[in-house]
Specification:
The structure is a single chain. The protein is an alpha/beta fold and about 375 residues long. The chain has a single domain, classed as Alpha-Beta Horseshoe (pyruvate-formate lyase- activating enzyme). The protein has an eight-stranded mixed beta sheet with strand order 4-6-10-11-12-14-15-21. Strands 2-1-3-9-7 form a five-stranded mixed beta sheet, with helices on both faces. A three-stranded antiparallel beta sheet has the order 16-20-17. It is globular.
C-alpha cells in the first residue's frame, strides 16, 4: 500500500481523527505542521519539494509524494458547471474529500495543468462531520435527489487505506434520503468497503483502458485486470457499478485491442452505464506537449494531429467563448466512439452509454440520444 514520503498537517486538524489515523499508519513518514492552507505555505514547508529538480514537471512529480491534511474548507462541497453550452456536460455536485490529483502518474492527466506546480501536493480533507454538514446544507436546498462526485479532482479510493473516507461516508449516505455518493477510481483498494451497508446510495465507477495502453501510459496505477477484479467484487457486494472507457487511444491495431478489452469487461461485470472518451487536452497542455510527458514520443505525436474541438467565437450577449480542448478531428472521434458503442452493444442492449464532454454534433453522429445525459456521474 502506498505511503507518502512526507506528510504536512494543518494545525487546525492536528488532533482530528482523520489526521491521527493517517499518522498511525505512516509512523516512519516525516511530519511537518503549517498554520494555513495556502499553497505557498505548504510548499515552503516541504523538504521533498525543496529538493525537487528544476522544472514544472519535476515539481509536479515530486508533489505526488507529499500528502497535505487540510481542514474542510467552505468549498469542499460545490458545483461544476460547463462554461460552454456547445459541449454536452450537465452540471454536477462535487465532494472534494481529496484534490490535487493522486499518486498515480497517468501521463495524460488533466490535473497536471489544473494544479501545475502551484499546488504540487496531494490534499486530503479531515473534519468529516463538518463536511457532512456541508452536504446536508446542499441537500436542504434541493427538491430532487443529489449525487455528489468525489472523483473529479482525485481518485476516490486510491487513498482509502490511509483516510478511511469511504468507510465513513458510505454508511452516512446510506441513511440519507435523496443523497448519493459517486466514487470514480482506478484503484483496487476495495476490500474494506465490501461489507459496508450502502443501501445502493453509493455508485462506484472504474476508469478502464486497454491493458497495453494502461501499462504504457497509466504509470503507477493498478493494471486493467486488477481494476476489473475489484469492480467484480464491488458489484457482487451490491453496489451499482459503472465504467469509464477513457481515453480510448488509437494506437496500432486499436480496434482489435479495444474489442478485446470490451469483451473482457462484459465477461466479468455487468455495468449499468459506460462513459466513453478519447484523448483531449487543454490548450496549455497542447502548448507544453514537448515538456509534460514522461512516456516517450507517442502522446506528443498524437497532439501534433490535434486541433481545437470547437471554433472560437462570441456566445450569447457577445461573451467570448474559447475553442475548447484539443482533440482529434470530428470524423476521427465519431469513428472511435461509434466503434466502441457497436462493440458494447454486442454484449448489452441495456447498458446506457454517454460521451465525456463532447460536442452535440458528435453525439448525434454517433447515434446517442441528447434528450438526457447518461454519464456515469449523473442520476436518472
Amino acid at each position: 500500500m502506498w505511503q507518502p514520503k512526507e506528510i504536512i498537517v494543518h494545525e487546525k486538524v492536528r488532533k482530528d481523527p482523520v489526521t491521527e489515523g493517517i499518522l498511525a499508519k505512516c509512523p516512519e513518514v516525516p511530519v511537518k505542521h503549517v498554520r494555513d492552507a495556502r499553497a505557498t505555505t505548504v510548499s515552503a514547508a516541504s523538504e521533498v519539494l525543496k529538493s525537487a529538480r528544476p522544472g514544472m514537471l519535476n515539481k509536479i512529480l515530486a508533489g505526488k509524494q507529499v500528502l497535505f491534511i487540510s481542514p474542510a474548507a467552505s468549498g469542499t462541497v460545490d458545483q461544476f458547471k460547463m462554461p460552454d453550452e456547445r459541449i454536452v456536460c450537465p452540471s454536477f455536485d462535487r465532494l472534494k474529500l481529496a484534490s490535487n490529483g493522486c499518486f498515480y502518474r497517468c501521463d495524460w492527466c488533466y490535473l497536471k495543468l489544473t494544479y501545475r506546480a502551484a499546488f504540487p501536493f496531494i490534499t486530503v480533507r479531515a473534519e468529516y462531520e463538518k463536511i457532512a454538514r456541508q452536504i446536508e446544507k446542499r441537500l436542504s436546498k434541493s427538491h430532487s435527489p443529489v449525487i455528489f462526485n468525489s472523483g473529479e479532482l482525485a481518485d476516490s479510493l486510491a487513498l482509502e487505506h490511509l483516510t478511511g473516507a469511504a468507510r465513513w461516508f458510505i454508511p452516512w449516505f446510506a441513511q440519507k434520503a435523496g443523497a448519493y455518493l459517486f466514487m470514480l477510481t482506478k484503484s483496487a483498494n476495495v476490500e474494506e468497503i465490501l461489507n459496508i451497508a450502502h443501501n445502493r446510495h453509493t455508485i462506484i465507477a472504474w476508469t478502464m483502458n486497454n491493458e497495453q495502453v494502461s501499462r504504457k501510459f497509466e504509470i503507477g496505477a493498478p493494471s486493467f485486470a486488477s481494476r476489473l477484479k475489484a469492480a467484480q467484487k464491488v458489484q457482487a457486494a451490491g453496489y451499482p457499478l459503472r465504467l469509464r472507457l477513457d481515453p480510448i487511444v488509437p494506437i496500432d491495431n486499436w480496434k482489435t485491442r479495444y474489442a478485446e478489452t470490451i469483451r473482457q469487461i462484459f465477461e466479468q461485470v455487468n455495468p449499468e452505464r459506460i462513459t466513453l472518451g478519447t484523448l483531449r487536452f487543454e490548450a496549455g497542455f497542447y502548448n507544453m506537449r514537448h515538456t509534460l510527458f514522461t512516456t516517450g514520443p507517442e502522446l506528443p505525436a498524437f497532439l501534433e494531429e490535434m486541433h481545437p474541438m470547437l471554433p472560437a467565437e462570441n456566445g450569447p450577449g457577445g461573451a467570448a467563448r474559447k475553442s475548447g480542448k484539443y482533440s482529434f478531428d470530428e470524423q476521427k472521434r465519431v469513428e472511435i466512439f461509434s466503434f466502441a458503442v457497436n462493440e458494447i452493444r454486442k454484449y448489452s442492449t441495456n447498458c446506457r452509454i454517454a460521451l465525456c464532454k463532447e460536442s452535440a454534433g458528435v453525439w448525434e453522429k454517433v447515434g446517442l440520444p441528447l434528450s438526457r445525459c447518461s454519464c456515469v456521474c449523473q442520476l436518472d
